[in-house]
DNA sequence: CAGGATCCTTGCCGATACTG
DNA sequence: CAGTATCGGCAAGGATCCTG
């Protein structure tokens, strides 16, 4: 059963799905300060399995948000970097962070009040 | 296993989770144009089960994003509306939509190119 | 009308082992 | 080093039935 058509396949939803994905956001944030290798990403983003990291990187690459550069050397070396589109998306994430920092106290207060009222 | 501590419980992640939730966003968008009843939301947001709708509404209420007003009449009538905090969040969603509309063509083109390269 | 309770499926994701 | 392949657990979420 599909959700409302006015939101199922619209551009917004696709972006929302990406934004809502934990690993994707973390990768984008990490790459915001420059190129990184696979292992660097894996080490810094603690808790991510090879499977999920690869899957996330492939998805971001497919969407044109990051580039994947394979250096034909041994041992292998693969670099990941944001495209300009990816940097643009990072701008959005920064906007979200600003909003979050500005309003998290209100949200926390609301939660506390709500939970107290349920007791 | 927790993801990177610098992102697990930070304000950004909590907002990201909310933004990434399909039903929450749809509810916020629907309430952006005014107060609506439970059934109105259920009918308009096609495909949502009573369970998920209630769960979503409770979550939004707990976070102080919407208000829930029970009218003591028969048959029951419950109105939902955005708080000012919820309206502020809606502003964020609008920003995402603008970005999505502006860049979806690039993303689509990247996907097509990527898929073609795999064949 | 506005949900609460229950059951049950599915698909996401983590852990692990293996390879060019 | 940079992945791929496979298995299994677990929780989100859908369908359904029931009630104040």
SSE topology sketch:
The structure is a homodimer of 119-residue chains.
Chain A: H1 5-8, H2 11-20, H3 22-31, E1 36-37, H4 38-44, H5 50-62, E2 66-71, E3 77-82, H6 84-118
Antiparallel strand pairs in A: 1-3, 2-3
Chain A binds a DNA duplex (20 and 20 nucleotides) through residues 1, 37-39, 42, 47-55, 70, 74-78.
Structural account:
2 copies of one chain form a homodimer. With 119 residues, chain A is mainly alpha-helical. Chain A has a single domain (11-118), classed as Winged helix-like DNA-binding domain superfamily/Winged helix DNA-binding domain (Arc Repressor Mutant, subunit A). In chain A, 66% of the residues lie in helices and 12% in strands. Chain A has helices at residues 5-8, 11-20, 22-31, 38-44, 50-62, 84-118; strands at residues 36-37, 66-71, 77-82. In chain A, strands 1-3-2 form a 3-stranded antiparallel beta sheet. The longest helix of chain A has 35 residues, at 84-118. The N and C termini of chain A lie far apart (37 Å). The model of chain A has no long low-confidence stretch (mean pLDDT 92). Chains A and B meet through helix 2, helix 3 and helix 6 of A and helix 2, helix 3 and helix 6 of B. The structure holds a DNA duplex (20 and 20 nucleotides).
